[in-house]
């Protein structure tokens, strides 16, 4: 096209802008296609030939970008039209800035949220089969590149796959510290994702060959209705080789190629090895031969040198009535692991390997169609195989079985299509079906059990339960339950478990606990609740779930706090009610009688006390006030003694429609040697680990779960514990007026060393006599600070003024120092504001300034 314009003035102008015009319209077309795309998207890292993630393509996912070091393997992905655009195929070392720049440029071009990142980094330093490990630390650190990309891209899901030893293998993390890969994944991504790892044999999940691998799946924490358990592949029994290969013709002659299938051929090898394997039975290795001439050997200088048999499975014939063996990269040689056909004297053909690795026939290894390849002459076929076969075999050996990732892709598709129900939708459904009536709710669940995801049924049932507000028991969302269950100990030495749920509701934790402890021989659940309607629904749900005979359920309709229960539970877990017992309630004396902390009326505190007497491992979701409120000082000491080793801070995110801050904790006395605690924060999106003594230091009045080096630096500058606090909550609007003798200051009136007048807001009284706060009137050195705020500021209480309960009045414990405006001005600085956020554990509700929290309003040292 360019040539026809080259001889005219217009042509010169056109040629000058041709490339820009072409690029502009190409980009417009690109964006049009992307905007029309409604498919979920994925990125594949260390993708080799794309065998595994082909399972995503065949299940309707759109590949935004794929990265592979070797161009010859990336070409195979192009043959399979994996990416819509050529720019999506990114060859090169992903650790290099230029390669990463291409990847992120492609992501920006798509201008869409990435649904999945798949990463299968090299495993040479981890594999049991590899005896040439030496120092593979830098190579293993390729995993860290995957972690960094996931952290920056923030996909909805991520998938890491690698060998069995993957998570325990050391790597160099982003902080340049050497640590196990598992720790690097959790420390970098655990704040943003719910993460589950399992060692699986892929033969049980879609592959037809034994392949034990670690699979790590993360689900972004803002996706509340999906857990990694929903994404993990579903079990599928493998086919035996007798069934799997039944229709393939035998290959008895060395070098033979099937007429109808170029990929089904007898790979040639040194004929002197043929006697080594000719008489082997299934499961036997050539090293089992009794005839010395049939044992693998070399002849050097006329001397027979026998080969080494390191793994015990070299030169070994596989079984016909089993699934295939683990496929390694050197599946082309007899000397690799279990490569010999059960009935024929050869290694498995490419087609046989494809079937074992569940690679579908539609997968293309070359640009040529298979019909064209099969039509080639015998010599042409040999030439083709000589050029391509080794690369194909190695790609198969290092791949993830296609069916396994196809299984995962199907689960993601299904999960994404099941959106979370909004509060409005739930309320409308409850109203329409009149589900607040227990009989109607029971009937609805029975009739619709298969029509709704289980997590959605739980959601509907909990919100429909009219007794929910009376018992102050709140719906535990499936992702919240997962985070706690996933952090529980594995109890590896125990075959049987006994678990207590003291306020079970309708059993939100049970399906997750059943998955967590699926490897146990027997799990007995004692399920206690005070609400009979909840227990009736629970019985129905357990019947419908049909979890299997290894799980036994005892339904107990009692008040947990007064029930007589065994004292030998392996685990107590749950979400106890949060209400207060009224002073007039006769149960208060009963509850306090057996409680350790008698300074409170909070039900959850009594639950903690009793739970700690019934099990050495306790995991509960409770109000966040437990970490800082004065009334729970005894409870905090109990938890330290009980070896609390994990806190999950949900802030206000745990319960929809309920304005309450919560945490979960795990106390595990079976792990007494562990002096560290993990703090997982949903509000800061962080996962931190440090010594318990650091977060629970006696230098401060309560636990500081976000304490850090910046906090410590500021703390060094301050003299603490100089004030005491007072608030008068007697004064209400009913007591105040628009004018009067004495001004009543409120939080919005307090500025930085100033009093702010606000029209229509300012209040007055004529006398302070009825109020406790009257003792502060016209008193010197009284400091006012707004009570519930993350924007601390201070001013002196002026003459003829008092303050209502929205303002804390601070007075010095010792009267040695005269306070100045400079002292107060520090509280309005950004430095103190950040310090104060940490001091208040990033709370949003439990922000009252009491005689514990006032500790942190220190004075700058001279």
Task: Report what the structure shows.
There is one protein chain. The protein has 862 residues and is of the alpha/beta class. It has 6 domains: 1-36; 37-231, 3-Layer(aba) Sandwich (Rossmann fold); 241-381, DNA Methylase, Chain A, domain 2 (Alpha-Beta Complex); 420-464; 465-704, Vaccinia Virus protein VP39 (Rossmann fold); 718-860, DNA methylase specificity domains (Adenine-n6-DNA-methyltransferase TaqI, Chain A, domain 2, Alpha-Beta Complex), CATH 3.90.220. 31% of the residues lie in helices and 18% in strands. It is built from 28 helices and 31 strands. It has a 9-stranded mixed beta sheet, with helices on both faces. It has a 7-stranded mixed beta sheet with strand order 3-2-1-4-5-9-8, with helices on both faces. Helix 6 (142-153) runs parallel beside helix 7 (181-189). It is elongated, with a radius of gyration of 34 Å. The chain starts with 8 loop residues before the first helix and ends with a strand.
